[in-house]
Amino acid sequence: MPVVLFTCAGQRVDIVTAFARAGATTLAVDVDRLAPALYAAERRALVPAVRDPGYIDALRQLVDEHDVRLIVPLADLDHLLLATERDRLGVLVLLPDVDAIRLCEDKYAAHSFFAANGIATPATWLPGEIPGDAPFPVLVKARRGFGSRHIYRATNDADLDFFLSHTTADSMVQQVCAGEEFSIDVFCDLESRCLNAIPRTMIESKGGESIKGMTIKDSQLIDHGRRVAEAMRIIGPANIQCFREPDGSLPVTDVNPRFGGGFPLPTAAGSRYPELALALAGGERPEPTLGEFRDGMLMTRYFSQVILEGDGGTLEVREGAAKQCP
User: Fold this and answer.
1) Are the beta carbons of 292 and 284 closer than 8 angstroms?
2) Is residue 251 assigned to a domain?
3) How far is CA 203 from CA 5, 30, 67, 254, 322, in A?
4) SS3 category, 325
5) Are 305 and 26 in contact (CB under 8 A)?
6) Are residues 185 and 243 in the same domain?
7) Which residues of the chain have pLDDT under 50?
8) Coil, strand, or helix at residue 323?
9) CA-CA distance, 237 to 93, in Å (whole number)?
């Protein structure tokens, strides 16, 4: 059973357990010993913070100790570092190259890339370049934000001036999309061929993460997800957020090169993304299966927990308390 190392494991119990069901031996790491996903994995370890100079060395030591075959980052925090240091790690890191990571991290750079490559994108300006006739409402958005942080809706010039002068983040201004929002969960091979793209509706979100949604077998959205993923040279998973506007266009607002917050839904719909990741780690070259998933699958999420006890600094799942694995 190949060993898969999950970095920044956090709360992503859903992803860790899905890989275990797919046949992996799971090794979760985090800086916080109370990260729930640590206790959903077969093996776990604490590592330094991402910004610590010893972070990559700690991961490399775990790779050697556990014969790790694949590294899967579960949050945005270490993407650029892992992509930069993949040779030192010595195993497959499920991320695109540094240029693609930088493009995904900088939303204004991504907007410029989309515009240059014929991919629909909302009108977007840097603070000093906003035209006098910019259509309201607009969003003041952090260029490198995540989790819906530092996003403010302005309905007039006074709002816009206020938010631009008070936000603490390096920001841009983007026209608000008027249509329905969708997320498209894609997975690409090591050549950036899109193996599948699974659109889902965004019925309800909290903190930027989908908590209610439904898979939708929409050929236009499927092809759009494929086109965006391949243009950006995605490797592994990515979540593409877009809107369907009244004119039929599909402007892209965000691309996250990781498994999305709504991961359980495409998994339930038959994505087999963990199995595809393990196949890539094993040197296989799976063929695309675009559009092969179950339509109309619904997800509604809830809080769960892991109960721990221990002494001497060691924590274990409490005896008799089942691991809560959605």
Assistant:
1) no
2) yes
3) 32, 31, 41, 18, 30
4) coil
5) no
6) yes
7) 322, 324-326
8) coil
9) 11
